Batch of 2 targets.
Target 1
Amino acid sequence: MDVRTRILDAALGLLARGGMQELTQPRVSRAAGVRQSHLTYYFPTRADLLQAVARHSIDALAARLRKPQRARRAPLSDELASAAADKGRVRVMLGLVSAADRHSRLKPRMRRFVRELRGRMAPVFEARGLRLDPARVAFLHTVIVGTAVLQLARDDAEARREARAVLKMAVKTCTASSR
């Protein structure tokens, strides 16, 4: 595993366990087993690191959702609900939103990131038999984010059941309206 990937994995693990307050250069470099200078070489600012961690997390999720499985695959809504329940991923997303809210120079990066993310979502949906136009991809993305945030905030069985039901309804709506 290369140094950059070790740093991203370490940062993602710290965020998943403790949220944004864990994302400090000393903690990340220690968790990755690298010198702090290596960390700043790859990610000069905390915002650079956070954005790269978000992409790393999304890439891993997209790869998992696209990967063919021999056994019967779970319904897309169940896989999306499982992804929405990933506390680390949700904390990364909330960290990005919070950073962009506090620092206006990050807003253009966030706009690009959301466009890129939605562009990556379309092929994942297509691999599962859903051909969605950009508005429907935006709709599903918004529903996924909303369920993820509410699920993290409530963190109980009821929130997980609700997320699954809402995502099932959203996928069904998009499937019916894309015909």
Note: The radius of gyration is 17 Å.
Target 2
Amino acid sequence: MKQYIKIFLPVSLVILLGSLTFIFAQTTKRADGQFPGGDKRSFRPLPPGMMGGGLPPQVLEKLNLSDQQKEQIKTLEENSRTASKTYFDKLKSLDDQLRTVTDGETFDEEQSRAILANKAQVMAELELIRLKTGIAVKNILTAEQKTQLEQLKQQRPEMPRGGFRPDIPPPVEN
């Protein structure tokens, strides 16, 4: 019996300590948006394929922007975010409506089409805001920075757009 306790007790303690470590290491988001330790994180949802306007921060860092250019770009991005907010709210509302229509026992195709048409229109408006912001940011750049931007675009790897990928052979069927 003593030998059993000598083996069982350390194993039990390791399991208990491991479980407690796992439990207390979990981070959970509270309802007020605060994370443990007071860390506040934000998330701005974007529809698939949209970057939110302008150029990625990594690219802007490589262009050696002046302080004035940085401030102008920051203002453009804030304006874009503000203009987009109402459309994101509309998208959320339309998604909720679509979910309500499809959760029922019967499917109303006409109502679904109307909601999807509205959703497409809202997404088009968001894309226009993104494009306008991108053009406005590019117009802030000097000729030298625009040339450098074109060089950076040529250096980036080609991103697959879904569907057929020529670099991956099709699966072999037996």
Note: The helical segments are 2-25, 57-62, 67-103, 109-140, 143-155.
